[in-house]
Every structure is written in C-alpha cells, then in structure tokens.
Amino acid sequence: MVIAFLIASNADAQEPISDWGFTLNAEELSKVSYTDQLFEERADVLKINCASKEDLMASNLFTMQEIDSIINYKNNYGPFLSIEEMQALNEFTVEQLKELKSHLDFELPTRYSDILSLHKINGQISSRILLPANFKSSEHTNYVGSDYQTAFGVRLNIGNHLSLSYNGKKDAGEQFQFSKGVNGFDFNSCSLGFKNYKKWRQLIIGDFQIQLAQGLVMWQGMSLGKSSDIVTVKKQEQGLKSYHGMTENAYFRGVAVDCQLKKIKLLTWVSYDAKDASMHNDSIHGNYFTSILSDGLHRNSLEISKKNSIMEFSSGMQWSVKINQTQLAYNTALLIYSHPIIVSDKCYQLFYNSGNSFFNHSISYSGTKRNINYFGECALNERNNPAIVNGIISSLDKNLSVSLLHQIGRAHV
Predict the structure, then answer these.
(1) CA-CA distance, 318 to 201, in Å (whole number)?
(2) What is the distance between the alpha carbons of residues 226 and 388, in angstroms, rounded to a whole number?
(3) In terms of Cα–Cα distance, which of 243, 384, 257 is closest to 319?
(4) Phi–psi pair at 144, nearest 5 degrees
(5) Quick one: DSSP state of residue 251?
(6) pLDDT at residue number 261
(7) What is the DSSP secondary structure assignment for residue 261, as one 8-state letter?
(8) Which residues, listed in sequence order, are joined to residue 206 by a DSSP beta bridge?
(9) Which of 128, 143, 286, 347 has the most beta carbons within 10 angstroms of its beta carbon?
(10) For residue 366, with 0-12 CB atoms within 10 Å meaning exposed, 13-18 middle and 19 or more buried, which class applies?
(11) What whole-number distance in Å separates Cα of residue 193 and Cα of residue 181?
C-alpha cells in the first residue's frame, strides 16, 4: 500500500511548440513513445471555443475546477471572443491568462453548412529525413535498408466533425520501396474520425487509443507518473482518441464508438492487429512468446522474422453516468492473443500473468465538490486480484494546492 501527500504551488507555463511536425534531434527521437504524445497534445494552440471537456482535460493546461468553469460559461453565455473575456472567470488571474494567451485560439465554431460544402479545411503536412552523425553505408552492415530515417505525416480537419490522418515512418536500416512484401514505409498508420454530431460523440475507423479512468483496466499513450506536480496525481482520461503518433505498438486498430444514450455514455471498441513478438517453441507449450516488442525495428533478417508474429484481439467498453457532480463508470477490457505468453521467473517478470486471454474490469468515480476534486478506481483481473486507487486534489489558494493519494495492489498468485 502506498500513501502520498503532496503540496505544490503554480509553476511557470512552458514555451509552446509552434509547429506540428518533426523537429526533434536524433537523441530526442529515441524517446518516441513520450515525444510523439507531446507533439500531438502541445503542437497546436487549443481552440477553446471548439474544445469539449475531454479536449480541455487532454491539453493539460487547466485544473478540473477551471475546466468546469469554462464549460459552464460557454453553455450560459456562448463562445469566448478573446482572452480578455476569460477574466470574467474567478478561477483565473491576469498573470495566468498572460501565460495561457499563446496556447489558446478563440476561433468561433464552424457552421455545419460550411462542412458539407468543404468551405473550411484545416490541414497539416509534415516530413523529416534524419542522417546519423556517424554515417556509414548500409553496404557494410547486415541492414536491408539505407541509413536514413524518414517519416511523413498528414492531418486534415474538415470543420468541427470530420478528421483524417496518415503517418508513415522508416527507421534507419529499414527498407523503403514498393515491391512484394514491402509497401513504402515500414510503418503505416491512418484513421478516419467523426465527432460531436447529435448523440455521436466520436466514431473512429482505423488506429485509435483508449484511456479509461485511472488506467487500471486500460491506458494507451503518454502517462506521467505520480510526482509533486499536482496535475499529474490524477490521470486525465480522454476515453477515445485518434492515434497520430509514430510509436509502432501504442494503439489499437479497428473500430471504436463513443456515444451518448440519454443519461448514459457508452464507449466501446473492437480491434484486431498484428504485433511483433519474441517467439519460442518447446515440447511442453508448443509455439509461445515471451514479450511483445516495442522498438518497431525491422532492419535485418532476425528483426524481420519477429515482425507481425502474433495476432492481438481486443474489445471492451465503458458505461458511465453523471449523478449530480460525480461521474460513475463501469470499465472492461479483453485481450486475446493467437499464441500464449509464457513468462520467466526473472525479477522484471515476477508480476506478469501467463496465458493468451486477459480480462480486466473496474468501477471508477470522479467528481468535484466546491474546491475539491475527488477520484478513484477499483479493479479486478481474470484471477480476481484487486488494484485500488483513490485520491483528492484541493485548491486551498490560487498559489497553493494539496493532494492525497491512496493505492493498493496485489500480485497474482
């Protein structure tokens, strides 16, 4: 059991990233699982008048009290016309608004008639080519491709409802050609999204990520660990989101829906995709794997032999309802692999489960009462082993916040 008590004051805002595309150096690119998410969430200014509550949470710019205040203001008075109008909200000081100014855009929402006639399309196209500092010809290595790392990305937003994205990447040493077995980039990702129309909150076909509650059942994408930073104590779930990153294993591929059924919100998904894995065979278990590979490298015959070696099926859902100021949810996630995973007795695998089918479910809550934000999740896996997270965050003053975190976990037996 872990109990943490944290106190923190407001920190200075970070400098905004001005463009969407790939300006990292080679060292930073090695941390792609972290930086890809940063690009996605901090690259563009936030269109606050078009942003939903989930968008505001995902921006990591606001506390829950500030988010609720922004939503209530827009519902009562309409969209903000400028940063100066936000001074009407008691949660913000002039100094805070000066820091937020470079992160926010006050463009008014697009009319539906504009979407149908394609009068307004916002697009982003980015590319990069990296040449290693210690450049050596691939002719003297076992790599099948050139030493260049190349990537290409396109994101199109048609009004406020439709979006389309494509990302392709070839790591240094991988092939890039159109021939049998090689389709251009080594990694290709695309998604088609439709959101915020009547009861349909979001529909995604292609690649997407799922983030539920506090992450005990399912969480994909960037997740900051617990620290003295008050904002990171509570995970700000986005539920369903399109995938725009370059990490080759941090997403599902299939169909996902998020809709509002009267007072109940339903999020559900189905995914079926190939994964890289370390495969083995013996007389007891037959074909099995010991780990799913996350580097996405396919530069030589050994790495290529591990590409798409197992199939992963995933399905799950979240039923949630809001009662007064509290959001209650029931979360489930199922993972089935084409071959079983067999773990060793090594220290880093002591708490891993073996098998080819895994099921987690939980009950979660989150809400706000005056200046207190409370949250928690209680989960069980297929062996009924529990995991529990509870916490509160309270703003005692504009420059002082306090959080209390409680965690319980039990290893499998």
Answers:
(1) 14
(2) 15
(3) 257
(4) -85, -15
(5) S
(6) 87
(7) E
(8) 191, 254
(9) 143
(10) buried
(11) 29
Nearest to 239 by CA among 260, 218, 254: 218
271: β partners: 254, 314
- What is the enclosing helix (H) or strand (E) of 42? helix 32-42
Quote the strand ranges of 9-64, DSSP E: 46-47
Distance separating alpha carbons of residues 306 and 95, to the nearest angstrom: 53
Residue 302 · residue 295 · CB < 8 Å: no
Cβ partners under 8 Å of residue 214, min gap 6: 234, 235, 237, 364, 375, 376, 377, 389
- 79-136 per-position pLDDT tens digit: 888 888 888 888 888 888 888 888 888 876 644 443 344 444 455 555 555 545 444 4
Amino acid, single-letter form, for residue 364: S
Question: Which single residue is written with the structure tokens 């209390």?
Answer: 404
d(CA 48, CA 24): 27
Return the half-sphere exposure (C-beta side, CA atoms, 13 A cut-off) of residue 218. 29
Residue 227's identity, in one-letter code, is S
Low-confidence residues in the chain, pLDDT < 70: 1-44, 108-141, 178-183, 224-231, 398, 410-413
Alpha carbon separation from 175 to 21, 143, 191, 259, 372 (Å, rounded)? 23, 9, 24, 41, 54
Rounded to whole angstroms, how far apart are CA atoms 338 and 355? Answer: 10
For 111, the token pair is: 């009319």
Hey, what are 397's tokens?
Answer: 């003053």
Answer for the pair 353, 333: CB distance below 8 angstroms, yes or no: no
Which tokens in the block code for residue 284? 């007891």
Q: Are 58 and 69 in contact (CB under 8 A)?
A: no
Give Cα 281 distance to the centre of its chain.
34
Measured in degrees and rounded to the nearest 5, phi and psi for residue 356 equal -120, 5
Stretch (H or E) spanning 101? none
Q: Report the DSSP pairing between strands 386-397 and 372-380.
A: antiparallel
What's the mean pLDDT when you consider all of the chain?
78
CA–CA dist 395, 373 (Å, integer): 9
Listed in sequence order, the residues at least 6 apart from 323 whose beta carbon sits closer than 8 Å to its beta carbon are: none
Q: Cβ–Cβ contacts within 10 Å for residue 56, how many?
A: 20
Bridge partner list, 288: 280
CB atoms within 10 A of CB 254: 17
